[in-house]
Amino acid sequence: DVFEQPQHVGHKKIEFHITTDIPSVLQTNSEKEEKNDLYVTTEEINNTGFGRIFPAPSSNDKMETEEEDDEIPSEFISRRELEKNRLSREEMEKFSVFKNYEPGDPNCRIYVKNLAKQVQEKDLKFIFGRYVDFQSEVERNMFDIRLMKEGRMKGQAFIGLPNEKAAAKALKETNGYVLFEKPMVVQFARSARPKQDSNEVKRKK
């Protein structure tokens, strides 16, 4: 019974084709591949150019591969996941931690605050690792996470990324992301050197 049903479906499909040699092809194939009738029928359909029956699956396949391309490294967070758990600008305004928020001057280091106490380095790697090409040794070495767990700096982290472009993208996509029920506040890290330079300029004036 199990094998008769798919064969029956196969014959039904063949009724649409106006060619004489197909039933014989199907018979020889079905004898050889009795256990794999689905393969036979799809092969017959392809041979006769009647692939139009299957537009939906092929477009789904394309969509799936595109999504997979976007999320190549599965050990890191997906863009969809980031967007889903990120606060909107209106929601951010309700949180005091985003009051007077300034992204800071672009550079390749990121400063993250308002982290929940259970956040670990691996959580930050999961999120920020997507902005690093781990196949490149240079980028891999530039990627650096420093999570503060004690003292006044608790709940804050510094993340070194390969370049300013990656840092800017990370800031844009992760600021307001809710991790362990707390939204992350993401800014460019401030380095001490530019401040000294500006002071020197002022003195010269």
TrEMBL record:
A Pfam family: RRM_1
Organism domain of life: Eukaryota
RRM domain span: 108-191
GO BP, sorted A to Z: mRNA splicing, via spliceosome
SMART domains to which the protein is assigned, alphabetical: RRM (SM00360)
Single annotated GO MF: pre-mRNA intronic binding
Intracellular or extracellular location(s): Nucleus
Location of the region described as Disordered in the Swiss-Prot/TrEMBL record: 50-71
Swiss-Prot/TrEMBL keywords: Nucleus, Repeat, RNA-binding
InterPro entries: Nucleotide-bd_a/b_plait_sf (IPR012677), RBD_domain_sf (IPR035979), RBM41/RNPC3 (IPR045164), RRM_dom (IPR000504)
Cellular component terms per the entry's GO annotation: U12-type spliceosomal complex
Name recorded for this polypeptide: RNA-binding region-containing protein 3
Gene (name only): Rnpc3
